[in-house]
Amino acid sequence: MSKVVSKSIGAFCQHYPKVACVVTASAKGRDNAMAVAWHSVLSVSPPLYGVALSPKRFTYQLITESKEFGINFLPFESAEILASVGGSDGREVDKFSRFDIARDESVETGVPILTDAYAAYECKLVDDRGYGDHRWIVGEIVAVHWLKEALTQDEVIDLDKVKPTLYIGKELYLAPLKDSMKYLDRQVYAKGLKEG
Ligand SMILES: Cc1cc2nc3c(=O)[nH]c(=O)nc-3n(C[C@H](O)[C@H](O)[C@H](O)COP(=O)(O)O)c2cc1C
């Protein structure tokens, strides 16, 4: 194995895998959904969530109009939805009817919540800034939907019940392998691995 050092970003894939999810929006009587892999929680109090969106996306236009968006986490069995909504343009097609995507009621916003999602956030837009060719939109989470069975008693995802969808670029999706899970207590490891 040999490492390469370069100033070129190449395929720009080193940050993968990422959990892929579906951003939803609704404005002017149009509902839409798109796949995203570039997203992150930013704050717990208040609960803030950020997503990198190209301003070319129809979803981005709907979000600037309505000031709301949804983040939907899909199980691996529903990964095809990510490819469908991530490969089509909402200006040309009603993705919900074309791909037969079922919706649940939202409670604090007007954004579509995907029935297939094991968890979803309803967000109110609080910031929208440009960074290079993408916008970084930030929403305050105002409601959370989740499947009770998807969490263990310790409130971590129960991988026996739900497999989050990971994306590694080039249209490749995978599920996490439960057998690879390790418990590494930071209090123990912070003391130094070699200490007894
Ligand atoms: C797995 C996957 C991840 C994606 N991640 C992003 C992303 O993070 N940001 C983005 O702007 N587009 C991303 N895209 C592309 C959009 O989902 C795609 O351009 C979509 O067709 C936009 O739909 P819209 O124009 O109807 O909003 C991704 C696509 C896929 C398949």
User: Major sheet: size, sense and barrel closure?
Assistant: 7 strands, antiparallel
Low-confidence stretches: none
Into which percentage range does the β-strand content fall?
Answer: 25-35%
Helix-strand category: mainly beta
Label the overall shape. globular
Number of strands: 12
- Whole-number average pLDDT? 96
Range of helix content: 10-25%
Question: Which cofactor or ligand species appear?
Answer: flavin mononucleotide
What is the H-and-E element order? EEEEEHEHHEEEEEEH
What is the first-to-last residue Cα distance? 32 Å
Number of helices: 4
Radius of gyration: 18 Å
Spatial order of strands in the largest sheet: 3-2-6-9-10-5-4
What would your notes on this structure say?
By secondary structure, the chain is mainly beta. It contains four helices and twelve strands, in the order βββββαβααββββββα. A hairpin with a 2-residue loop joins strand 2 and strand 3 (30-36). It is globular and about 60 Å long. The two termini are 32 Å apart. The mean pLDDT is 96. The protein binds flavin mononucleotide (FMN). The site of flavin mononucleotide has 21 residues, from strand 3, strand 5, helix 1 and helix 2.
